[in-house]
């Protein structure tokens, strides 16, 4: 276990699956925050050291990430830490035991500022160090990833749903590295289950923002 403080961030709009997500990640971090996105959230009694933040604005996954990252930075720096790790997962993700250590322990040794597990790289560590398109199976897994807290990376709120993770992966690679360690796959229960017609509109706007920033779509 790392001596650095470790934080978890889980945005949710109140889906029942969030309880399993919290239960899996909470033992692996020192503190965890649940970002309650939306006005109609069912009250839950979360475990000790789980903070709750509410966000009643329009859907924007980057804003939710950023609120959690700001919270983690505030707690870490107030406690005198100069380095810390932050895991961000979807509310429909169940991470396996030891996932946080598996992803985060070696990030700084790889000179990387972001990392995830999984992919189809047959036991080979992949580290991206340039903001360029990468194979689909080597993209940062936006539903479960870790950031080096002191890197200051934040989500680009112009990309409120799709492409937010691609943008973050590009910027992490350019800022030092985005590492994907093979194996240790997480359970992602309901991929794209929340992509409603309203979200599709946001995705179109996010695509435009990505192209304006990077000159092309990532895939």
Set out the fold topology.
Elements lengths: L5 E7 L5 H8 L5 E7 L12 E6 L5 H18 L6 E5 L3 E2 L4 H6 L9 E4 L8 E3 L15 E5 L15 H11 L3 E4 L5 E2 L8 H18 L5
Parallel strand pairs: 1-2, 1-4, 2-3, 6-9
Antiparallel strand pairs: 4-8, 5-10, 6-8, 7-9
Total separate domains:
1
**Cα shape:** globular
Poorly predicted residue ranges? none
CATH homologous group name: Spore Coat Polysaccharide Biosynthesis Protein SpsA, Chain A
Based on the coordinates given, report the CATH architecture: Alpha-Beta Complex
The secondary-structure element order is EHEEHEEHEEEHEEH
Which strands sit side by side, in order, in the main sheet?
Answer: 3-2-1-4-8-6-9-7
Roughly what fraction of the amino acids lie in strands?
15-25%
The chain-level structural class is alpha/beta
Q: Determine the fraction of residues in helical runs and give it as a percent range.
A: 25-40%
Query: What distance lies between the first and last C-alpha atoms, to the nearest angstrom?
Result: 36 Å
Mean of all residue-level pLDDT scores: 94
Main sheet overview: 8 strands, mixed
**CATH fold title:** Spore Coat Polysaccharide Biosynthesis Protein SpsA, Chain A
CATH class designation: Alpha Beta
Number of helices: 5
β-strand number: 10
Radius of gyration: 16 Å
If you had to describe this structure to a student in words, what would you say it looks like?
Helices cover 28% and strands 21% of the residues. The protein has 219 residues and is an alpha/beta fold. The protein has one domain: Spore Coat Polysaccharide Biosynthesis Protein SpsA, Chain A (Alpha-Beta Complex), CATH 3.90.550.10. Strands 3-2-1-4-8-6-9-7 form an 8-stranded mixed beta sheet, with helices on both faces. β1 (6-12), α1 and β2 (31-37) form a beta-alpha-beta unit. It starts with 5 loop residues before the first strand and ends in a 5-residue tail after the last helix.
